Amino acid sequence: MKWEIKQFNSLVSTNTTARAYPEGTIVMAETQTGGRGRYGRVWQSPKGNLYVSFVFASDPMRDRYLSFLTGLALAESLPEFNVRLKWPNDVLLDGKKVAGILLETVEDKVIVGIGVNLISNPVKNMLYPTANLGGLLSPIGLVKRLMIQYDALFKVFQEKGFRKIQSRWLDLAVGVGETISVHLPTEELIGIFQGISEDGALLLKTGKQVRSITVGDVFLI
Ligand code: BTN
Q: d(Cα 182, Cα 202) in Å, to the nearest integer?
């Protein structure tokens, strides 16, 4: 893909600004005044960390896999760190959240927003413990790595399909085969994390049943 980077000092949210740009645009901001996380949570966005959004043309064959492709691209962009992935799309360092991914579909585009704690991480009132990468990488340095990893993974996806991506993702995933708790919008489920389905759902064995979960927060217990 041919990428074009747009850099801003401050935006409300790179995901919002990205909506106005064509496929292949990468929107970066030094800070965000209204950074968003999943489920409308606030994503605190002080200077020094990475706030970036990639604009993709919607592609029914690829859209539902973009979160796995992105998590994997991010993990593979950080070879010097021992990062792991947590379903659906968190990146963990030593079991603590170091990056988050927010996908938003707008008309014929999918905006993939990525926040990475490069030098600092929020600590107060967090749903999960958090960590940062110790200031070893610059925002633009990481974006350049991400562009390379995305291109490489899209090639694998095109040639070999989701299976290959799924197995690489599972190799880095935390909690597979273990008992986890999944918080759904209206209930909490506890079961054994069996893997992910062909369409990206989390497979949770609760008693004799295997539930296929498409939305929720995973907690390792
Ligand atoms: C999450 O884990 O809840 C997802 C967090 C996603 C944060 C990024 S920062 C860049 C982009 N702009 C936003 O407003 N959110 C995403």
A: 10
Mutate to test the pocket of ligand 1, among 10, 15, 126 (most ligand atoms within 8 A of CB): 15
SS3 14: helix
Residue ranges of E strands in the chain? 4-11, 25-32, 50-57, 83-86, 90-93, 96-106, 109-116, 179-183, 188-196, 202-206, 209-213, 217-220
Q: Is the CB of 14 within 6 Å of ligand 1?
A: yes
The rounded distance, in Å, linking the Cα atoms of 93 and 129 is 10
C-alpha neighbours within 13 Å on the C-beta side of residue 194? 15
Amino acid sitting at position 113: G
Tracing tokens 């200031």 back to the chain, one arrives at: 135
The whole-model pTM stands at 0.95
The pLDDT tens digits for 163-196 are 999 999 999 999 999 999 999 988 999 999 999 9
